[in-house]
Amino acid sequence: MLKIDRLNEIIKNTVDVIEKSKNEIFDIAEGARRECKHIEDELNLVRNQTLEIIRQVDELKLQEVESRHRLMIVSKNIKEFNENDIRIAYERAKDLQIQFIIKQTEEQQLIQKRSDLERRLKLSRETTSKAESLVSKVGVAMGYLGGGLMELSEQLDDIREKQTLGIKIIKAQEEERKRVAREIHDGPAQLMANLVIKTELCEKLVDKNPIQVKMELNSLKELARVSLKDVRKIIYDLRPMSLDDLGLIPTVQRFIANYIDETKQNVELLVFGEPSALAPIAELAVFRIIQESLNNIRKHAHAKYIHVKLEFIAESIKLIISDDGKGFDKGNVKSKDIDGGYGLLSMKERVDLLNGKLEVISTPGKGTKIFASIPLQINEG
Ligand SMILES: Nc1ncnc2c1ncn2[C@@H]1O[C@H](COP(=O)(O)OP(=O)(O)OP(=O)(O)O)[C@@H](O)[C@H]1O
Ligand SMILES: [Mg+2]
User: Fold this and answer.
1) Which residues of the chain have pLDDT under 50?
2) Domains in the chain: boundaries
């Protein structure tokens, strides 16, 4: 039991880790996408700046050529221009040359920056597309893995429940044996012991006091009758032989008559359809469901009216047992506890084994309804 719990814990942790890893990969892809966008924005800015600076460089170049030309003319026509004109032309040409060189350097730097950004953008796009493909591949793989593990975990829960049920059934069998042993010990065994004592007494008295012997024999007969009745009841509880001798319906009728006798509750039995031959194991299941349901009603429900409905249809038998008792909240039944009630659980297990269906509908204060449907013919292996 512990191993299954441990395994289940490991599986659940693994599923958690898978979920977290999925999110982390998603974050990586998201980060790469954001980086791309950032580089694209910066590249656009740098591209515009480059265009602008190229334009400025071209313009400066023209101005610079034109200023050099002017300097040449001024220098050659000393008659027309004075010294000051020459100096101005010279300074302008020099100034424009410096400006041109500075702008040209700026232009080269921007072009360098642009190609760096273009290279980074290419790399970043590659990373994004790899991350995106990873997200989808890992997503699918992890989806499968996670789903598979969850399924496994559910199956483990199921196995654990079955293990618990197995232990409960063994306990129940033991309890049942103890109960039968106690019943035989307190009832028939006690009576038989009395019978032996009384027979010995009769033996001693037979010559001396025939009248008392007659009386003792009478009480002896009564003792034998009571113990026979007890033995019959014990046998009946173990397995009603009338199931084999008389069939299902008369056995159920008898059981209900007896129940009414003991509890004074109103039980109505309704049979629909043509009772057809059921596999013995299915017959026993129907009987046990009625027996356990009525025992539960007697023990827990405090009901006034009880209906037992049996319906034979083409390939199955339907069974409804309803009471108007106090009902219960299924969520509160600690079915998973080892020591909890096993009546409802073993009913369910019995029906499951026969490929049938069982449903318990109960609301506190509004009574309980048990629906069961069992196939008529069962392959008993
Ligand atoms: N007809 C009913 N009316 C009210 N409560 C019910 C009815 N049937 C079952 N219950 C509730 O469901 C619980 C589980 O029933 P279940 O038959 O499994 O166990 P149990 O009767 O307590 O014990 P066991 O059957 O093992 O002797 C009961 O303890 C009771 O609280
Ligand atoms: Mg019960």
Assistant:
1) 335-338
2) 2-165, 166-236, 242-375
